[in-house]
Amino acid sequence: MIRLVFAALLLGAPSPGFAAEPIVIKFSHVVAGDTPKGKAAEKFRQLAEKYTSGRVKVEVYPNSQLYKDREEMEALQLGAVQMLAPSVSKFGPLGVREFEVFDLPYLFPDAETVDRVTDGDIGRSLFAKLESRGIRGLAYWDNGFKQFSANRPLRVPRDFRGLKMRIQSSKVLEATIRQLGALPQVMAFSEVYSALQQRVVDGTENPVSNLYTQKMHEVQSHLTISDHGYLVYAVIVNKKFWEQLQAEIRTQLEKAMRETTVYERAIAKKENEDALAAVRASNKTEVYALGDAERKRWREALLPVHAKFAQAVGRDNLQAIYRIAAEAEAEKANKKK
Ligand code: LMR
Questions:
Q1: CA distance 267 to 232
Q2: Secondary structure class of 71 (helix, strand, coil)
Q3: Which has the closest alpha carbon to 208: 115, 281, 258?
Q4: Would you give the DSSP letter of residue 155?
Q5: Exposed/middle/buried for 206, CB within 10 Å: 0-12, 13-18, 19+?
Q6: Ligand 1 pocket by C-beta < 6 Å: which residues?
Q7: Tens digits of per-residue pLDDT, 216-232?
Q8: What's the Cα-to-Cα distance from 56 to each of 77, 245, 249, rounded to whole Å?
Q9: How far apart are CA 192 and CA 243, in angstroms?
Q10: What is the pTM of this model?
Q11: Which atom of ligand 1 is nearest to the CA of 35?
């Protein structure tokens, strides 16, 4: 037995009963655990540990426990964490503004259109732009449509005049807020609740699951269901870490990620619907849903942002998304017939 252990140590093979240390994936993110992304991160942990038979251990750090927005990107590039799932609105500071095409107002009619774009050439070509930054893109998750909240009713575009609105670090979002006559304020997600509470900013935009789980509805008297934008996540890893994994492990992790992505997209809509019901039930925020005519007026008021950023986000990508959205709408109309 001793000879066997000794031979095994010499040959570098793990000797029977001597388990190699698991490979650790630190998965950091900025939202609460009971959100589409929070639940998906947990799902990935379970599947990754199952499919690798424990050879990989995933440690999930939600709610900016480890790093805030900007810091987490740097931490990933340095290898201090191995996996993130930031909003695609946060790649601008890395010099990849093309991701901001997803921030254009009223670009996507529904989740299916977003999935067609992210799972297609555009999604792949955008991930390719991260490689030179030491980042590998694995998948796209989503958190549905964004809504506006503030401490006054937001029914028509001019209601935004003079408001300070918190946004993510995106030039397209900045221009969108300015187009409404409001003042954009870039801020880390973890700082938004206290900034709203202390009136450093007057309002913000997010899917309701984020608004509710961060208790922002407790410090915002009005919520408008505007569906004016879409929140897309990019699941990314440190490229060097990923490439040095054994091929077998990578395949098992890719399987876990594929299944988790199906799960995440399946729960996103319901999570936001449940959050909206909870906000309504709290009676802390007056909820107003735009009617079709109002939505059309908002869309017209915000469309100039498309023309302004067509060059910066990539004309070809934008034209391709218009085509995909038109096809999806036509298919929907045909189905109704
Ligand atoms: C935000 O900063 O508002 C969101 O991107 C947070 C998130 O990751 O959902």
A1: 14
A2: helix
A3: 281
A4: -
A5: buried
A6: 30-31, 87, 143, 168, 189, 206, 210, 231
A7: 999 999 999 999 999 99
A8: 20, 10, 8
A9: 36
A10: 0.93
A11: 9
